[in-house]
């Protein structure tokens, strides 16, 4: 499913970012920009909702809607490696980020193995969205990430810890920004691995690949088939420091995702730009 309008400038931005090796650059053109004050207000409202009397009910409704959407969006999705989730409880999931709805693939994989809750770390700007999508962003187990030092230093880790103490999974995108329908994994940032090492939980390494079905979805893209690949889990090494562990886990995950790409697409991973890197693009 294609979310958003004209993607020509987005694709051009991705191409330029690849050529400049700016792997975590924002390429979307219509994302809102929040002032520090507006960001702080959204975070404060989010924290107040968590403690409010109606949150539990709204959270239940949002998760029911997310579950139904997941079933519909992934009725034909293929999964590989679900056996790698055996015995995994509290964990941090990493995956490639290329579509606003591709997290439903991860949610579907978790539900197929009996896991009912998936927290997703998301940009604070998503809390400002309106309508049904905005409701899901505010209530469907979303944990906002921000630039506000007090929140990131004290409250954000506490929110992660609360989820992990309930033996839940948290999806954190190590690529940071979404690159629409970009098929290659991008070098990860260290954040997810730092928290996995800090809280002594494994990384559930995932890679979602795409197949162009050759049927138009809109005037720029063809329809896409998703394949969710659950790779080998990566456990902390108790003999290492948090920093050493995070660097080690990040390196292993990066290597696994490159191998998964090569197996999915039948070609060696190269960081150089190729027009076919935007799957389904007809523009």
TrEMBL record:
One of the Pfam families matching this protein, by short name: Acyltransferase
InterPro entries: Plipid/glycerol_acylTrfase
UniProt keyword Transport present: no
Domain Phospholipid/glycerol acyltransferase positions: 91-211
Record keywords: Acyltransferase, Transferase
GO molecular function: acyltransferase activity
Residues making up the signal peptide according to the UniProt record: none
PANTHER family: 1-ACYL-SN-GLYCEROL-3-PHOSPHATE ACYLTRANSFERASE (PTHR10434), PHOSPHOLIPID_GLYCEROL ACYLTRANSFERASE DOMAIN-CONTAINING PROTEIN (PTHR10434:SF66)
Record-given protein name: 1-acyl-sn-glycerol-3-phosphate acyltransferase
Upper lineage: Bacteria, Bacillati, Bacillota, Bacilli, Lactobacillales
């Amino acid at each position: 499913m294609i979310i958003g309008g004209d993607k020509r400038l987005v694709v051009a931005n991705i191409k330029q970012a690849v050529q400049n090796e700016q792997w975590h650059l924002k390429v979307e053109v219509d994302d809102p920009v929040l002032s520090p004050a507006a960001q702080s207000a959204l975070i404060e409202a989010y924290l107040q909702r968590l403690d409010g009397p109606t949150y539990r009910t709204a959270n239940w409704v949002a998760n029911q809607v997310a579950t139904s959407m997941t079933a519909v969006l992934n009725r034909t999705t293929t999964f590989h490696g679900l056996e790698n989730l055996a015995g995994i409880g509290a964990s941090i999931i990493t995956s490639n980020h290329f579509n606003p709805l591709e997290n439903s693939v991860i949610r579907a994989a978790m539900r197929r193995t009996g896991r009912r809750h998936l927290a997703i770390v998301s940009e604070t700007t998503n809390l400002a969205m309106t309508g049904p999508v905005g409701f899901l962003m505010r209530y469907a187990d979303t944990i906002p990430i921000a630039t506000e030092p007090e929140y990131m230093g004290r409250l954000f880790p506490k929110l992660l810890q609360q989820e992990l103490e309930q033996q839940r999974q948290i999806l954190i995108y190590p690529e940071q920004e979404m690159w629409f329908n970009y098929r290659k994994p991008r070098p990860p940032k260290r954040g997810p691995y730092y928290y996995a090492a800090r809280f002594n939980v494994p990384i559930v390494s995932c890679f979602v690949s795409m197949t162009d079905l050759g049927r138009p979805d809109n005037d720029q893209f063809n329809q896409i088939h998703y394949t969710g690949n659950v790779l080998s889990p990566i456990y902390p090494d108790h003999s290492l420091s948090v920093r050493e562990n995070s660097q080690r886990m990040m390196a292993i995950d990066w290597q696994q995702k490159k191998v998964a790409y090569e197996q999915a697409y039948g070609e060696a991973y190269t960081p150089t730009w190729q027009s076919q890197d935007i799957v389904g693009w007809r523009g």
